[in-house]
Write a structure and sequence with these properties.
The protein is an alpha/beta fold and 255 residues long. The protein has helices spanning 2-20, 26-38, 56-62, 76-89, 103-106, 126-136, 150-153, 185-188, 205-215, 229-234, 236-244; strands spanning 46-50, 68-73, 94-97, 111-117, 137-148, 180-182, 198-200, 218-223, 248-254. The strands form 2 sheets. The chain has a 7-stranded mixed sheet. Helix 4 (76-89) links the parallel strand 2 (68-73) and strand 3 (94-97). It is globular, with a radius of gyration of 18 Å. It starts with a helix and ends with a strand.
Length: 255
């Protein structure tokens, strides 16, 4: 499924960039304010972003004067957009194409801060992933992982016959570990691109927490951010959908 995920993201790169760079995008309105409150001091620090997509967070971290920022992603098209943006703004962030599930193969240095946003539900073996992250983190380092909430990823399971849920179905099977298939919002609400299903995995809260604990991490903080109050007035249906099904679970980890 790894090749399929890579192709999905190559196909979605431009639509994703257009959707997530809006001021009222989920990333800026819900995720980023919560992450900001959890961030350690980044001045003169070595930073690694796993699943950096088009570089949004890498560029934000660079504003804090780190020693360097390295962004890693599996999608060539996402990285091309990130590199284009870096040229325009004179950024020194380095981007490389690699599979983060093989972190131990291409990373042989320590980092003070490791970050990832909404990437780990595309990784099948999260036990090895957290173990490798632990080994790449400096002894006094901090890791912040923003996960797609396990309640959210419990939706749209592919059944045992390989059948996908129909578009009008809303099915949550929390303890069902089968693969997931759904239309991403930047595809669904974009008239310029044909709808297609995006594949991912589903991990429960206990899957994540046990992988984190077994790797040796300490869990410093857990947040499940709310949508902004302004949405309640301006777009109640959007606000209510995020109350019904939380999108993010954000964890701050240390050694």
């Amino acid at each position: 499924m790894k090749n399929e995920i890579e192709k999905n993201w190559d196909d979605m790169a431009k639509a994703y960039e257009d959707f997530t760079e809006k001021d009222d995008s989920y990333s800026y309105a819900i995720e980023w304010p919560c992450i900001q409150k959890m961030l350690p001091q980044l001045n003169n620090k070595r930073i690694l972003e796993l699943g950096c997509s088009t570089g949004r967070y890498s560029f934000l971290f660079e504003k804090e004067n780190p020693l360097f920022v390295l962004g890693v992603d599996i999608s060539e098209n996402m990285l091309n957009i990130a590199k284009e943006k870096a040229k325009k703004i004179g950024s020194k962030v380095k981007f490389i194409k690699a599979d983060i599930s093989n972190l131990d193969i291409y990373i042989n240095e320590k980092f003070d801060f490791i970050f990832s946003s909404t990437t780990f539900h595309y990784i099948e073996d999260i036990k090895s992933l957290f173990f490798n992250i632990f080994n790449a983190l400096d002894d006094k380092g901090v890791c912040i992982v923003s996960l797609m909430h396990p309640v959210y990823t419990a939706q749209y399971p592919v059944d045992k016959n390989g059948e996908f849920p129909s578009d009008d179905e809303w099915v949550i099977r929390y303890l069902d570990k089968s693969k997931r298939a759904y239309i991403q919002p930047w595809i669904e609400y974009n008239d310029n691109i044909e709808n297609f299903l995006s594949m991912s995995y589903h991990h429960t809260v206990s899957d994540y927490f046990n992988a984190i604990i077994n790797a040796g991490f300490r869990i410093e903080r857990v947040e499940e951010p709310f949508p902004p109050e302004s949405w309640k007035q301006n777009c109640y249906s959007r606000y209510n959908s995020f109350i019904e099904t939380p999108s993010y679970m954000i964890l701050k980890l240390s050694k």
